[in-house]
Amino acid sequence: MKNLFVLLSCICCFSCKPSIQQIDLSGTWEFTTDTSQWNQSLILPGSVTSNRLGEDISMSTPWTGTIVDSSFFFADKYAEYRTAENFKVPFWLQPEKYFRGEAWYKKTVEIPQNWDKYDVMLTLERCHWDTELWIDGSYAGSGHSLGTPHRYLLTQWLTPGKHELLLKVDNSLKTVNPGINSHSVTDHTQGNWNGVIGKIALEALPQIRINHLDIFPDIDHKKVKVELEALNSTSTAQEVTFKMEVGGRAFEKSQTLPTGTSPVYAEIEMGDSILLWDEFHPHLYQLNVHLSGTDGKELSHCSEQFGMRKLEVVQNHILINGRKVFFRGMLDCAAFPLTGYPSMDKEYWVKMFTNCRNHGLNHVRFHSWCPPEIAFQVADEMGFYLQIECSSWANQGITIGDGTSLDQFIRDESERMVREYGNHPSFCMMLYGNEPSGEKSTPYLADFVTHWKEKDTRRLYSTAAGWPNLPINDFLNDPTPRIQGWGQGLTSIINAEAPRTNYDWSNYVQQFNQPVISHEIGQWCVYPDFKEISKYTGLMKAHNFEIFRDDLKKNGMIHLADSFLLASGKLQALCYKADIEAALRTPDFGGFQLLGLYDFPGQGTALVGVLNVFGEEKGYISPEEYRQFCNTTVPLARLPKLIYTNNESLTASVEVAHFGDKQLSNPKLGWILSTDDGKTIGKGQWNANQISIGNNISLGNINFPLSGITEPKQLSLKVYVNDFENEWHIWVYPSTPRNQYADNDILVTNSLDNKAKEVLEKGGKVLLSLPKGKLRADMGGDIQIGFSSIFWNTAWTLGQAPHTLGILCNPHHPALSQFPTNYYSDYQWWDAMSYSNAIEMDKLAKGAQPIVRVIDDWFTNRSLGLITEFKVGKGKLVLSGIDFWQKMDERPAARQLLNSLKAYMSSEQFHPVQEIKSEDLQQLY
């Protein structure tokens, strides 16, 4: 049995496809979960659940994946979704049916008479995932790969005539557990499906054939090295000739092949005019190998595409073909909402990589899974750099390096993946997987990297995404360099420090001798788009979205759903801009990997994409806008602040990150400062003979006095390098706000004391500003507000701050006439959000409509007020959750907002409609 496993492991890594004939086995198969009865059928390629077989979803569904927030199983708010007729889970997309365990697939085949002189192989392109096979009742072997085809050499069983194939597929993780949250198997993303997809076929193979082909480009010496594995399954040695051709160059070699496998080595000169492969010029070559006998008759042939490229690390920089490269990447987390399993269609992958390119990206990390062959092919053609992982996230219930079956699986899986996909130039990096745990994980992963660096130099290697940072790594996937780290809450740069754009990660990365590619930056959430629900026309349903929508409707705000989406989306995009620009400003940085460009459907529902899970825009940022700050060439301004008073000067040092195809000669460089109505108030130009490849390339400085701005203004600073533009919003307020009201006409107070009540009873005006931290917990005081959007989501992080998604307002409301704003959070709201309480309006006054709302988490959907007006008896009140008391001499934005509110309260437009009693306001404290 042991020898059989070794043979089958080799077969599973077969890479050339020299079949003479094949029998397509796609179509109807008999199916059962109990071999004592066969009364069902299904269609392959497909899965049990894509065929609408399996069990109904229920409280006992054996999900594969950690559920951090288990409140669904007992909380009253979810009771209506725990009924059989209306069962809906909030954790992830929900399949119509579910199946986990052993499934049996049976089909009768007829082998042609002329196949008696060939080897017969069964190819199952993508299985999920453990397979075992019987032919006419006889055991024929097993397969255990998650990321490569399962192939069975069946010559001794499949003689000419009829035969029964019986295939068992087991998705229960009992043979190997790669980690229940691994994107290769988890219900958080593609789903733990059971089935076979892609090519399903029997193939007749020559008995003397090319069994495998490895191509090693050598651009320094302008040649390719070929390592070929030939197989002779006859009983006698054979004299053969290999003829190889690529790019008009040919090589010929004769050799004796004994029975079994034999290595064949060759080097082919490529000439002086080789075409290199990279993101700008994805030139591909095709190597054709012909194997013939002594009579000159062709016995076998093989064709493989490859690219002439060289990846290396030199002085902390990653170079491709000798040129610095900056990896601008996103994560692909294996989310396939229509099928519940990976797409095998070229159109899907073309769309995905096109979306990436349209948003300025050149790199994709496949988080704890390996995509199918077609993904590599499209990436080759389009010029994308791929990070591939060996199907595991050994954390939360499983470890790596501690002697479990997973250790050997990772070794074997990496060998299978490199053998299957190693010639693809897009296959640029390989890691074990994601964020490992285990007492012995470090030495195990160090050995993993050492092994591959010695064996195959065609790509770069690192231990794991996230950690550990070991000296043996070619590069590091490190989670530290980002504007919001896991667990930082309101202490992160974007939430704890006033808005600026002059920071980078140089102090952190300089401690390492390898390039750093920041791990899973972003994770900024947006409110759900409920219009998306109707798009789930396949296996998966967005019942999580339906739960959130129902809750919003119950709370009387369904009419605001689209506004919440757009406003939170604008803030999300702003957060991504800050994250990406910080990476681009960092000297000697390797790049970043976004989480993400697409939404992540699981882990509590992480709506972190500017594109939905179908790769469609949501309406609040275009690819063109995104490319301003994420592209091959990005102008960058280091601004010490974004909020000014008019007795200051706007200062900035301006630079560019340029990782284009070549240096820029005599570029057009300059800046423009304009008002929000498009009027230019300042501009300048710089001169440069050339801009080389790299970042931190200085263009010049800006020093513009703001004394000429007498009214509060939102300005736009635009910097351009040829046709590449980037811009930042800047706010200028009068150093001394101009009073447009009578101070003695408005009482500004921090409590509804007797004096405030007296003013209201007499028909006066009160501005009640709650000091931060003084709001009762059950009135919203337990809601942690920061400037940024929610990080990942509150369900998976167990309530990690911040808990909200920015503000929503009518920018034309007269209360904001002296505080320039749009309808969403921009940096002028950083101060207000940092010194604020979110008031639960329905607990205070049901149906109250705030002037400025705070957008709540979609799990709670509370009506939250930041600024609200009320009629109190004869008086008029503005209730502010913003603290206008602390450090006001240091808060120009707060002073200006307060001035704007007072101006409104002094105007004839101040006529609150919503009534509230003064005693009701007492419950705020």
Summed up:
The protein is of the alpha+beta class.
Walk me through what this model shows:
It contains 15 helices and 48 strands. The longest helix has 25 residues. The strands form 11 sheets. An 8-stranded parallel β-sheet has the order 27-26-25-24-23-31-29-28. Strands 42, 43, 44, 45, 46, 47 and 48 form a 7-stranded mixed β-sheet that branches. It has 5 domains: about 190 residues, Galactose-binding domain-like (Jelly Rolls, Sandwich), CATH 2.60.120; about 100 residues, Immunoglobulin-like (Sandwich); about 300 residues, TIM Barrel, CATH 3.20.20.80; about 100 residues, Immunoglobulin-like (Sandwich), CATH 2.60.40.1930; about 180 residues, 3-Layer(aba) Sandwich (Rossmann fold). Helix 2 crosses helix 3. The relative contact order is 0.08. Strand 24, helix 3 and strand 25 form a beta-alpha-beta unit. With about 900 residues, it is of the alpha+beta class. Pfam families: Glyco_hydro_2, Glyco_hydro_2_C. Its EC number is 3.2.1.23. Belongs to the glycosyl hydrolase 2 family.
